[in-house]
């Protein structure tokens, strides 16, 4: 199918893009790599009358660790850029982010698709959204009223819904340094498909004893979620198996064509334990 008719606008800078979005109102949408939006338009799930193309804004394409140790990723940075970043660009300790890229679609999608586009799209099973929730990332958004930072726990609202206003553009995502032992894993029916369930953990450990840890799940709710019940098990010195059980007990996943709620709970048990073991082996 072809998309419904629309007018195309090429942005020259962020300020011009946000001003145009404010002028055009709800009829306009930003387009970055088009890897999600174009499919939605072709299926007529989205019918924007105007597309504001920010793909040429090189100022939003950057990646690097600052003096504060935080990783700052420009919204237009592609998944492939992160996947192939040098240790100097990505910095020590951010391997969990680099390794997670291999789970995203296929190479052509990773070459065009952007970090900001994935976050703004807000798919509940997207690897970037899960990483942001796991690691307490912050989102830098710019609009006609200026710039603001939004913590990950306040950014994702529900299925494909974020805290971004229609005239705001996501310009940068800031990741604090993860604990040294972090991992993301998932299950999809075919390589490159969106995950049915994904699990990510970030363990504070001396290599033998886990002092505390973060546990996050994708594909079990309208947005990725942290699981405090499973984190409490880790903090109390419980086993990875018990942590995984606690995670499965704590959530109430949906059932759909990809799998029943019961099946998703089974996946959670397997994937949380696997993620913990992978994290420990790093
Ligand atoms: C076959 C296939 C398989 C895929 N598999 C996976 C997968 O396994 N895991 C996964 O995570 N993703 C997957 N994707 C999606 C892919 O990761 C996309 O790169 C991602 O969803 C974002 O696409 P994009 O950057 O091209 O954004 P676009 O498609 O251009 O935009 C997506 C949405 O974000 C908005 N937007 C984009 N940039 C900004 C910005 N800077 N500020 C504000 N709003 C913005 C747009 O208005 C639109 O609503 C897959 C896609 C395809 C086609």
From TrEMBL:
Keyword Coiled coil on entry: no
Keyword set includes Flavoprotein: yes
Keyword annotations from UniProtKB, A to Z: FAD, Flavoprotein, Oxidoreductase
GO MF annotation terms: FAD binding; oxidoreductase activity
Pfam families: CO_deh_flav_C, FAD_binding_5
Residue ranges constituting the FAD-binding PCMH-type domain according to the UniProt record: 1-180
Gene3D superfamilies named among the record's database cross-references: 3.30.465.10, CO dehydrogenase flavoprotein, C-terminal domain, Uridine Diphospho-n-acetylenolpyruvylglucosamine Reductase, domain 2
Name assigned to this protein: FAD-binding molybdopterin dehydrogenase
Organism whose genome encodes this protein: Streptomyces sparsogenes DSM 40356
């Amino acid at each position: 199918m072809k998309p419904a008719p629309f007018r195309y606008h090429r942005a020259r800078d962020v300020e011009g893009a946000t001003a145009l979005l404010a002028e055009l109102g709800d009829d306009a949408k930003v387009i970055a790599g088009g890897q999600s939006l174009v499919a939605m338009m072709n299926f007529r799930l989205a019918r924007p009358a105007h597309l504001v193309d920010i793909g040429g804004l090189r100022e939003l394409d950057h990646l690097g660790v600052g003096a504060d140790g935080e990783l700052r990723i420009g919204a237009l940075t592609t998944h492939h850029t992160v996947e192939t970043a040098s240790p100097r660009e990505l910095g020590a300790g951010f391997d969990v982010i680099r390794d997670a890229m291999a789970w995203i679609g296929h190479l052509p999608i990773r070459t065009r698709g952007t970090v900001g586009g994935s976050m703004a799209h807000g798919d509940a099973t997207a690897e970037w959204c899960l990483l942001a929730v796991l690691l307490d990332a912050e989102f830098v958004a710019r609009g006609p009223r200026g710039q603001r930072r939004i913590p990950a726990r306040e950014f994702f609202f529900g299925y494909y819904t974020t805290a971004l206003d229609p005239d705001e553009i996501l310009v940068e995502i800031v990741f604090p340094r993860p604990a040294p032992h972090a991992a993301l894993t998932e299950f999809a029916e075919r390589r490159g498909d969106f995950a049915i369930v994904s699990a990510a953990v970030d363990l504070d450990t001396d290599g033998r004893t886990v002092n505390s840890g973060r546990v996050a799940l994708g594909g079990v709710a309208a947005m990725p979620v942290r699981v405090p019940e499973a984190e409490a098990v880790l903090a109390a010195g419980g086993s990875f198996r018990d942590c995984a059980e606690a995670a499965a007990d704590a959530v109430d996943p949906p059932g759909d064509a990809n799998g029943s709620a019961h099946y998703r709970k089974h996946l959670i048990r397997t994937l949380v334990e696997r993620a913990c073991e992978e994290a420990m082996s790093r």
